[in-house]
Write a structure and sequence with these properties.
binds hexanoyl-coenzyme A; globular; six-stranded mixed β-sheet; four-stranded mixed β-sheet; alpha/beta; 259 residues; 16% strand
């Protein structure tokens, strides 16, 4: 597929990289862009050579939100009947391989929500996060009121959502919104390093770990721990568990074959 709003490439034959590419609109997330992103993510997820995916933007903006120009004229009937957001923003939730958000510049509104929907966020030191929808007479609509408090707690989530103030990279790291902050010129190296590390582990363990952590957001502790326990038990049915433990015992590097 020829993409108009994103760029897609593969690094080292095993990391899929999707770059949001609407620079004049600071990567505002139009319907067309979100359609393309869904297609690209699904293609990488289905490609056996790919072990991890990176989603990134430009130095100035990961994404400055949903496309305000397009939204301005939407009516209730348009968004409700057209299933706005639900129709094409949820695809990323069905991706089973890890998706790392490499964020520089603005991650605002839907841009912040998109980053939070990824599995973890690595931020450049110029990153700025915010949910400024209140300034437009709306509220976050792609999970911001749900994922932000889970990431940073109620007080900061309320503060950011009700006042529309932005959080810089240092505060985002302190608050737990991002996993690491690096210099802007090191952002892609850092994200790629993390992705390649993940690619070298057993794909089965990687998928199971992601699935189990995501389950923690959907369930109570006892059920969540039991879900984890059953997946943990299941890993003992894999060749990769034998390989990983044999390699440790024999002081060699494991060669996981993802089975
Ligand atoms: C459409 C956008 C845009 C957006 C920026 N642009 N954000 N276009 N949708 N979300 C466009 C501007 O109109 C402008 O176009 C160009 O990008 C550059 O932006 P400037 O404002 O000139 O840049 P700057 O002064 O550096 O300010 C950067 C900024 C500001 C602080 C990020 O652009 C801004 O506040 N943007 C809106 C952020 C926002 O409110 N996001 C939430 C959207 S609502 P021209 O043609 O003038 O050069 C949302 C709802 C989510 O996301 C609901 C579920 C998805």
């Amino acid at each position: 597929m020829a993409y108009q709003n994103i760029e897609v490439r593969t690094e080292a034959g095993k990391v899929g990289v999707v770059t949001l590419n609407r620079p004049k609109q600071l990567n505002a997330l139009s319907n067309d862009l979100m359609d393309e992103l869904g297609v690209a993510l699904k293609a990488f997820d289905a490609d056996d050579a790919i072990g991890c995916i990176i989603l990134t933007g430009s130095e100035k903006a990961f994404a400055a939100g949903a496309d305000i120009g397009a939204m301005a004229s939407y009516s209730f009937a348009d968004v409700y009947k057209g299933d706005y957001i639900t129709r094409n923003w949820e695809t990323i939730r069905s991706i089973r391989k890890p998706v790392i958000a490499a964020v520089s510049g603005f991650a605002l509104g839907g841009g912040c929500e998109l980053a939070m929907t990824c599995d973890f966020i690595i931020a450049a030191d110029n990153a700025r996060f915010g949910q400024p929808e209140i300034k437009l007479g709306i509220i976050p609509g792609a999970g911001g009121t749900q994922r932000l408090p889970r990431a940073v707690g109620k007080s900061k989530a309320m503060d950011m959502t009700l006042t529309a103030r932005m959080m810089d990279a240092a505060e985002a790291e302190r608050a737990g919104l991002v996993s690491r902050v690096v210099a802007l010129d090191k952002l892609m190296d850092e994200a790629l390093g993390a992705a390649l590390t993940i690619c070298d582990y057993s794909r089965i363990s990687v998928l199971a770990a992601k699935e189990s952590i995501n389950r923690s957001f959907e369930t109570g502790l006892s059920d969540g721990v039991m879900f984890e326990r059953r997946l943990f038990h299941a890993t003992f049915a894999t060749e990769d568990q034998k390989e990983g433990m044999d390699a440790f015992v024999n002081k060699r590097k494991p060669q996981f074959r993802h089975r």
